[in-house]
TrEMBL record:
It is found in: Cell membrane. It is a multi-pass membrane protein. InterPro entries: Cyt-d_oxidase_su2. The chain crosses the membrane at residues 6-30, 42-69, 81-100, 112-135, 141-161, 173-192, 204-224. It comes from the Bacteria. This is Cytochrome bd-type quinol oxidase subunit 2. It comes from Actinocorallia aurantiaca. Belongs to the cytochrome ubiquinol oxidase subunit 2 family. Keywords: Cell membrane, Membrane, Transmembrane, Transmembrane helix. Pfam families: Cyt_bd_oxida_II. The keyword Membrane applies.
Length: 239
């Protein structure tokens, strides 16, 4: 059960970093990818169907972390509480920009929401980089991790965009940045004493069984969403 809990934590951590990080990367590069209002709406449409489903992985990660690994609460959540608060602020600001952007048909309103999207995405990425970098040994790794997430977002756009927008991201490879994020997740996990942080047998069993039951639903939902929106984006969406 202990090995299964550790494997689930690693999988959810990798999924959260890869999926949420890709969305953040798109937001970080929004002014460069979309050089007009119409282009920016098209870029946002690339992540529109996915970003809420991707955020569920972070919620699931927090649940298994708190429930199955209470010993990590002090080392991660308390000692890095500032970074986690900043992450949540960036998350809320980014989502607010995404949801509000299409509510009012005004160029100034759209420009203001774009600022929220970009600022929130950079804040989210740097906070993730700080947390991951601190676990790996240095918070100075935050900028490189953030840039990696930006490349990861560009790689995701490579599979979603067309025309001139696609040409701007042809240099990226989504599978490569995904592999690097996986390696960073594994390296961070090896620096934590996960076995010592495990919950008691009863709590661990309950949380692990619940995570095992939920995992196919999360993976199935992700695959279904990807299949339903498999076509490339050719114009602005609803955001």
């Amino acid at each position: 059960m202990e090995a299964l809990a550790i494997a689930l934590l690693a999988f959810f951590a990798f999924g959260s970093l890869s999926l949420l990080g890709g969305d953040a990367g798109v937001g970080m590069l929004l002014p460069w990818l979309g050089r007009s209002g119409n282009e920016r709406r098209t870029v946002i449409a690339a992540i529109g169907p996915f970003f809420l489903a991707n955020e569920v992985w972070l919620v699931a990660l927090a649940g298994i972390l708190i429930g199955a690994f209470p010993g990590l609460e002090h080392e991660l959540l308390y000692e890095q509480r500032t970074a986690f608060v900043v992450l949540l602020v960036g998350w809320v600001v980014r989502d607010a920009g995404l949801w509000w952007r299409g509510r009012i048909g005004s160029p100034r309103w759209a420009a203001g929401c774009d600022v929220l999207i970009v600022a929130g995405s950079w804040t989210l990425a740097l906070a993730l980089g700080t947390i991951l970098g601190t676990v790996l040994g240095s918070p100075l790794l935050a900028p490189p991790v953030a840039l990696l997430l930006a490349l990861h977002g560009a790689g995701f756009c490579r599979s979603r965009l067309t025309g001139s927008l696609l040409e701007r991201v042809r240099f990226t490879r989504y599978w490569l940045t995904t592999a690097v994020l996986g390696a960073l997740t594994a390296a961070a996990g090896m620096r934590l004493d996960l076995e010592a942080a495990l919950a008691g047998p009863t709590t661990l069993r309950v949380v692990t069984v619940f995570a095992v039951v939920m995992l196919p639903l999360l993976i199935g939902g992700q695959l279904l969403t990807r299949w339903a929106f498999r076509e490339r984006v050719t114009g602005p969406g609803y955001l």
